[in-house]
């Protein structure tokens, strides 16, 4: 059952909603802006209104993967394979997004309070600086802090997924350090 849970979590996470939903506008999100098949680049491609379903779907797949993984007895390590699926989608030749929204979805399942606070933190930081990567890093810190506080036995799994997400942002981190990270307006 563990292997089934792991496979389902990864496969659910691997569904490239940005590619699927933005394609309806006649645009390949992978050929716009950063080329990242995720929410922020979808905003660049089609605007906030048409990109919101991508965000909802990516958060939802994290939540659903966590639900199935835990129902099938897989635990948090298995649930967080959804983030790896998003980052390394077999449908996109093992390329993918950065995993933030999917991570938020898993966090929402783990603790609706932690998930909600992390979303509010993302919105607050983005509202101040208009830099999605900075808002994402603050969101990740909020999730890790909340999980550490409320579910200390799960913190190692969440930390591993957070590390994967951070490793998916090398250019953003470099630009943040140099002070050249560009903001985005919604």
Task: Name the average pLDDT.
Answer: 96
> Largest sheet at a glance?
none
Spell the H/E element sequence.
HHHHHHHHHHH
Query: Helix content range of the residues, please?
Result: over 70%
Low-confidence stretches: none
Question: How many strands appear in the DSSP assignment?
Answer: 0
What does the overall shape look like? globular
Number of domains: 1
Approximate strand percentage: under 5%
Q: How many DSSP H or I helices? A: 11
What is Rg?
A: 15 Å
- The SS-based structural class is mainly alpha
> How many angstroms does the end-to-end distance come to?
43 Å
Give a quick rundown of the structure.
The chain has 186 residues and is mainly α. It has helices at residues 2-14, 17-23, 39-46, 48-71, 75-79, 81-87, 100-110, 112-129, 132-150, 155-167, 170-178.
Chart the SSEs and their pairings.
Elements: H1 2-14, H2 17-23, H3 39-46, H4 48-71, H5 75-79, H6 81-87, H7 100-110, H8 112-129, H9 132-150, H10 155-167, H11 170-178
Helix pairs in contact: 1-4, 1-6, 2-4, 3-4, 4-7, 7-8, 7-9, 8-9, 9-10
Q: Can you put this structure into words, describing what you see?
A:
The chain is mostly helical. The chain has one domain (2-178). The protein has helices at 2-14, 17-23, 39-46, 48-71, 75-79, 81-87, 100-110, 112-129, 132-150, 155-167, 170-178.
Primary descriptors:
single chain; about 190 residues; mainly alpha; 11 helices; about 70% helix; about 0% strand; globular
């Amino acid at each position: 059952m563990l292997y089934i849970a792991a496979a389902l979590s990864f496969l659910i996470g691997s569904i490239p909603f940005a590619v699927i939903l933005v394609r309806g506008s006649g645009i390949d999100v992978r050929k716009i802006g950063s080329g990242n098949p995720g929410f922020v680049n979808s905003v660049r491609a089609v605007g906030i209104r048409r990109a919101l379903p991508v965000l909802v779907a990516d958060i939802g797949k994290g939540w659903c993967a966590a639900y199935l993984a835990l129902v099938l007895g897989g635990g948090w390590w298995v649930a967080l394979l959804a983030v790896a699926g998003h980052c390394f989608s077999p449908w996109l030749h093992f390329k993918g997004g950065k995993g933030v929204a999917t991570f938020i979805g898993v966090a929402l399942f783990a603790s609706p309070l932690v998930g909600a606070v992390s979303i509010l933190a993302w919105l607050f930081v983005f509202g101040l600086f208009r830099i999605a990567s900075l808002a994402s890093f603050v969101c990740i810190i909020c999730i890790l802090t909340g999980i550490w506080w409320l579910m200390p036995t799960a913190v190692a799994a969440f930390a591993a997924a957070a590390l994967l997400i951070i490793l998916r942002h090398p250019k953003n981190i470099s630009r943040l350090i140099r002070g050249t990270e560009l903001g985005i307006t919604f």
